[in-house]
Amino acid sequence: MKVTSFKSKVFLLIITSIITINANAQNEPFNCVYNAYLFQYNDVYAVNLASGTSLLVAEDITENSINASAYNNVDGYLWGFLKNEPKTLIRIGNDFSTNKFTINSIPDDAIFSFVGDINVDGIYHYKVSKSIYKVDLNPNSDNYLEFIESFELTQNINVHDWAFNVNDNNLYTVEKNSNHLYRINTETKVMTDLGIVPILIGNDYTYGAVYFDVDGNLYVSANQTGTIYRIKNVHNITTNGYIDSNLFAYGPASASNDGARCPSAPVPDEDCSNGKDDDGDGLIDCDDPACSGVESCPTITLTTSANKGGLESNNRLSQKITARNYLRSKTNYDFDSKKAPTFKPSNKIYLGQKTMVGIEDFIPYDGVKNTEAKITTPSDLINLTNAKKIFSVDYVNTQQQTVASILTMETENGVYEHTKYICDRLLGAEILGINTFYINDEMFIKTTIKSPSGEIEHVISFAVSDNGSGYDVESHWNLDKYTQNISYYNYQVWSNSVDDLYRLTSKILEMFSNVKPITSYKNSTPPYVYVKSGNYKNGKLTLNIVNTNNATNIKIKGGLRASETSDTETIDSDIEIDSYNTKIEFEAKSLFDFGFRIEGNNGGTPDDVFMADGAWGVDASAKNTEVISFDVSPQEDIITDGSYMVERGINLSAKTTEYVSVYKAFTPRFNAIDLQEYNTLKLNLKGTGKLSIVIMKEDVQHWEDQHKYTVELTNETTTKEILLSDFKNSHNESIKMSNVTMMVFVLTNENIGTEEYKSVSLENIEFKQAENLSNNNITFNQQVQINPNPIKTNTTISYYSNINSNYELSIFDITGKRINMMTGNTQLGNNNINYNKTNEENGVYVFKLKITNGQSYTGKLIFSN
Hints:
CATH class of the largest domain: Mainly Beta
CATH topology of the largest domain: Neuraminidase
Number of strands: 55
Structural class: mainly beta
């Protein structure tokens, strides 16, 4: 037997030397690595299962496609079948060089397969029709590179990949359509139906890549959407027992998927409640898809309405966006989806009518299960954008909550000028991930966005043009990639469910193809390096960069404007990066508008980012109102001491018989912000007449109930500090600075109906926290003398200054509320301040005297009759 075995092995080696083609003599094994490897035709992607991100690591490694890929635990290589090369397996090393092995002992009815994996003993198991075939790939075996046996499954299952679990050495797979999980014991040849996987219920996807980790968790990737699902500890699942499954990550979609991974390697997991990024994907706790439905994280969230969509804060639109939202607030506009009319399609397309169709005819009314489509068209976009026609619907569930939306615009001479991909990432929104869909075997970019108010939405944007004989479909990240000077039907589709997004988009394209054939797709790849989020505050711009293709350098090129009326300043910068997540900070000084393109040195689609601050605007809608001049000046002084700046100043002059006003939104999208940490409004102002300052709140529906404060303007610029508690509504209630949206400055005629000249100048507007003094924490300075004290009518405060400077005297009551403030000049030496009692009630007060050289004095004042 030993001699026979030896001869057999020698013979095998001789045969192998004849039929093996060495593509690279340096071919070395992978051994057990963390990455999963995804084969798409003859290209190889390294996939991080925790984040879903993929990196193209090798292209065209063979002439033909690779299928039934598998990791061999014994030799550390990747293996697979070569399409169009019968009975030929390929071995892939860690440098992606290859060796081919033609195995003549493979039966003629099993010369190729799409489904295969290798068990812990190095035996390759691949599926053809209803049977499993085995090939020995253990280099230590006497039967190395020999066909061993085959056996027939008890039923033919429609599967596209399977994988061995190292915990029990059984095969596991998920069937298309039924979404049932199967266990196959290849020793006993028993196949067990473990039941339907809960997270997959209702799906109709091809699961072309499946992987295991060391804990026996099965990861299932859907070809069409790229979504990666996790089924936990499958070796412990009993027939019709509980199957613990959840959405895990959003990975790359493909028309041809096949996966391989070392099943003994762990997969990093996210702790969903510790406030940290545990798995290195840049997502924390509930933002990570792996936390969907785990602990306190919701399975899905609600989405924003299409009535609020369709706009981006770029420089051309920013002022119009602010005007739109100001007028909506002033006229008490309140869109209520519960009262919106139900969408009832004309059925032209459903009934096969192929003429006289409009944008509303390509909206599926039944696109999301258990919802009703409501018409939510934001008609006021017509005058703001390049849209000729607009139509939108929200899909509202039985709890009257929006779970998906479609916004469509008809444009001429070019694509619609906004895409939801380019969201307000510098104003609170975040991109949680950029992946792909495959619809009709064509790739579309799918983005997951978290809005400033917390909604998580999956988004697709595309446009359709009519070429006469059919339709052309385009989907690009960059708007300048769309074909120029033609008419489009533009679509922005978003949902809280990847599956509903896929179905809605597929249905729209199907409706177009029912009218005319879709003759071409012109779609771009997503960016590999992009801005996840950012922030601009008080002169500093921060960008959080995601780098998915190991770029070492990025180029940022664009332009910024310091104010609405400033010229554009060009920005061109090269920056080194060295990690998946990189934070970059710029000293941007004053900034109104910033648009730039960012591109990594490893190529790929660049990312476009736009930001505009909430714009200043003029309301001259009152009868007989004429604006003489209106200028916006750049912010000269950048405040960085913890205050919140309302950036830039304005100068307005006008004639009116009623009123004229200027307004400034805190954000360009009119999102509410929280300023409760501040108690004082400080600003420089001058002008004519009385100025009403209105701070608008999102939860106050009527203009008349907003909180106001009125000041008397003079011809000289004065600095005014106003306690926010002095802003009162019509019920004399003080404002609470949560969910505030805008400031409005109103100049009203003293004599309505008579033309009056009005002017106002505003500068250095900031919200700040004034010092809150308490009698329990006062250290009194004996270098200040107050005479008399107690005070009946007036007193003199005497102090010494060591320089010529300025002073600021503040008076506080016992609660810490500032009730008065004086400023003036200080000379070197002894100084006196005469203070006259005004409306102070009898009692103990505290003063604080500050000199601009840093001197500070504190003391008590006692007022009496």
